[in-house]
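To: structure subgroup
Subject: Chain for Friday's discussion

All,

I'm putting the inputs and outputs inline so they're searchable in the archive.
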Amino acid sequence: MTDFPSHDLTTAPEASKPLLEKSQAAFGRLPGLHKVMAESPQLLEGYQVLHKLFTETGFDADELTVVWQTINVEHACHYCVPAHTGIAKMMKVDDAISDALRDETALPAPKLEALRTFTLAMVRDRGNVSEAQMQAFFDAGYDHRAVLNVILALAQKVMSNYTNHVAETPVDEGMRKFAWTKATT
């Protein structure tokens, strides 16, 4: 692969510097993903905005984690699965949820499993979910807004997962203990 630039506050394009400063303030460090995205200020800003908006959807910490990790695992993102494992720990998400998502095994709560199943259908079928899939999601207690919020998360995760694939972003040091590879079937 072509070596992608990994920027810091001194090497980033001018328009990316305030965005990296925002990342530094939020995380106490510059995540590798943000350093790579900084090459395109528009991508980094879009990612940050979508991330913020998704966290404001009303999904709780468990649900946010289920949607993010379902997409990360399906996309086999070597960077985002460990990162979101660490984020889930910071958000006090039960390890049983994180482990089930990483291992692609049943989640401990039927409503969370319905969220994962619907999110997977959205990813795999590129939004062309069936009426039965939609109804199962509604029957689990979700609504039209939740459908649209899964789409919001999918847009965010495509940005990060695809960036990490093409740039082969190294996993951040603090997240390496959560290293992950997709199970072969």
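Points worth raising on Friday:
Residues 14-53 form one domain.
The two ends are 26 Å apart (CA to CA).

D.
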